[in-house]
Amino acid sequence: MTHFLEVDDLEPAELARVLELAQLTPAPAVLTGRGVALVFEKPSARTRNSSELAVFQLGGHPVAIRAEEVGFDRRESVEDVTLTLAQYHSAIGARVFDHKVLERMAAVSPVPVINLLSDLAHPCQALADLLTLQQHFGRLSGLKVAWVGDGNNVCRSLLLASSLAGISVAAACPPGFEPDRGAVDRARARGIDVVVTGDVAEAVRGADAVCTDTWISMGQEVTEAGRRSAFRGFTVDPPVMALAAPGAVFLHCLPAHRGDEVTGDVIDGSQSLVWPQAANRMHVFRGLLLWLFGSVL
Fold this sequence. Notes:
Layout lengths: L11 H11 L12 E6 L5 H12 L3 E6 H4 L7 H9 L4 E5 L3 H10 L4 E5 L5 H15 L6 E5 L4 H13 L2 E5 L8 H9 L4 E4 L2 H5 L4 E4 L11 H7 L7 H5 L6 E4 L11 H4 L6 H23 L1
């Protein structure tokens, strides 16, 4: 059974195929008469809308399920919920607080389990990032991406996705907020150049794309004051973008907080690709489903 818990569950050729399928129009109705369960422990705007519409575009029926409706390990065990949903649905997507929940689901599920976000990884977002870059530059291999800010789950997945596509990465993060060392080692093992630094200018200089994310993610509100202090100097503003390569673009997975991790004149400016990037969340989820169901049906 093929599951998609981390972006490098895909091989490089499989990643390229998913991106190719994401742009297939019209999309074949491979999910006609089938359901896809979409479990949300954490609320979402882009993930729910993009995944539901992708399932619909493939002829299927998406069923969004709130946390209180399943009650992982409160009403029922993760395993029992998973096995129940698999009786009705051809795939299960889940947006969870703890990545171990996804691993437990995948361990028992007879249908594909898809990571819609966890504390460890956001692989569908990374697919959308790569598709956006591919559409804009016409290639992926040889590009340089700079990450500025928190080396979080989004950064980690982008780093791993970049390693599959031949993109070098430089991450500028405050001390203590660097990306997971294991992911950095995995990326370097694939032969790409990975730089982790506390110097924004070093990371951004010559980059084809500058990426960031909110400083305070869902569930981190209690540490907001300390995080704001730590991230002072890590705002992507016009002087930062000026250090990047000519024609560089700006990416943000959203939601954005103008004045914190990015200024309004950058995210709303001519270099920003955040809206095509958001749209591509739907397209890559459709491509991922086409790839998964091409593998299992």
